[in-house]
Amino acid sequence: MAKGSIVFLFVFSMAISLEGQSDCDFCDFLSQVGDSLRGDPDSAALARVMLDEYLQSSMAVNPVYQAFEMFEKADSLWDANRFLGAYQVMEEVEELARSSDDVYIWTFIARRYFDFNDYNMFYASLDSGTVACSSTESYIIMAGAWQDIDETRQMSQCLDDAAKLAKTHEEWLDVADAHYEYSGAEQEIRNALYKADELSRNPEEKRKVAGGFRLYLADVETADGIAPFGLSPNEIAKPNVTLPDWESDPAGLFTWLCSQVNQEVLVSIANADYGSGAERNLTMLQNIVRTELVPQSLTWNPREVLELTRWSQGPDVNHLERAFACAILCVDDLPRVAYASESNGIVLLESCVMLGDDAMSALLGLMVALVEGSAYEDREIPSKRKYACAAVYGLVLTAGYINPADDRLETLIPMLELEEVKALLSEGMSFELWQDLTNEIVPKILDAQPNSFQLKELGALVSK
């Protein structure tokens, strides 16, 4: 990964905390950072300045940021035993909340009063937040706040009011999700999903409704009648080129792994985020195995636990679990390989090596598919094709492990830029694993094909 990319990811990781800003404002900010970094890719200082300026402008107009600054002041006064001053600041925050349409502020105010051991003001703040609700979203926020303290009557009333205001496909899906999270009322969930289905405007929205029936109600029959669970790897793959002499097989490894995993494996992956969302994750994983389809695009459940499983390492790692997780992530990457994680393929390769010949044989076709999907036109030379470095080099290592004497390896070298591969091995995601597998596989390729001038370039990648 180039240094400019690292700087941009650094900025992005900080900027995702900018809750409350519009998508347009956020995208404009990222665009400005990206333009600056293209001109000066090592300018982390410039990125920091731009982020600070954005944060300052955000705080000036965002009542949530203003509230948090005031909370800090109230906390300092409280810790100094200046209780009257702390309450005066809290009154100012309440005035801010009354002038804002963001009921989240009332939930934060309530938590502060709870910390102050003022339970009367704690409940009064939640009441004020509920009274301030004017949309499906705001009633759902307050339903969650009441549910957090087991006040089921207020929670149920908020959900009823949220449904009364719901008018769009998205809002009815939110109502269904809230009932699943808070009330567990299956009939209310079902009614909300049917409403969302009536308002669906395209196949993607139909898939979301069907996903609700599967996830919330385990009603596979109704869900399948609305939309398929997902797409097969062959349907997801979008090759931009066809590699001569190489056979693409996007589905082979995924299908094989679906036949190998059991309930224990799925439960383990589902609980990878310290058990958070385990039930949702397990339902999604079970449906992936049952249908041998991958939902498009992967949502937080189960993407988060798949990515966490990908990072498992050490002598006790379960390679079947990790390979299954990485295979799903790789299949999901197929339409956008050029922007995909550099870790998915290399971690998958290591686990498939540990799983044996059947896994490696099936992996080869997926690696070819990733390369074919990564091709894009060179902006400077439109007639020239470029490829994602991690995809091509991943194929080199996979094919080289299976058969170091494979004469097709030579055809991949012109698709690589050696400096990009060196960066991948020194500063890319999972760079140590890339280097370890390079040290293991490349010498065998060079020994098997000593007369290949093109393959000799790979020798520079082996660390001493």
Helices and strands in order, then pairings?
Blueprint: H1 3-15, H2 23-39, H3 44-61, H4 63-79, H5 83-98, H6 104-115, H7 119-131, H8 136-148, H9 152-165, H10 169-183, H11 186-198, H12 203-217, H13 220-226, H14 233-236, H15 252-260, H16 263-270, H17 278-291, H18 300-310, H19 319-333, H20 343-355, H21 357-374, E1 376-377, E2 385-386, H22 389-402, H23 418-427, H24 431-448
Antiparallel strand pairs: 1-2
Helix pairs in contact: 1-2, 1-3, 2-3, 3-4, 4-5, 4-6, 6-7, 8-9, 8-10, 9-10, 10-11, 10-12, 11-12, 12-13, 15-19, 15-21, 16-17, 18-19, 19-20, 20-21, 21-22, 23-24
For the largest sheet, list the strands in their spatial order. Answer: 1-2
Order of helices and strands: HHHHHHHHHHHHHHHHHHHHHEEHHH
Cα-to-Cα separation, first versus last residue: 22 Å
Helix % is 55-70%
Helices, by number, come to: 24
- Uncertain residue segments: 1-27, 35-41
**What structural category do the secondary elements indicate?**
mainly alpha
Oligomer: single chain
User: What about the largest sheet?
Assistant: 2 strands, antiparallel
Mean pLDDT figure: 88
Give the CA-based shape. Answer: elongated
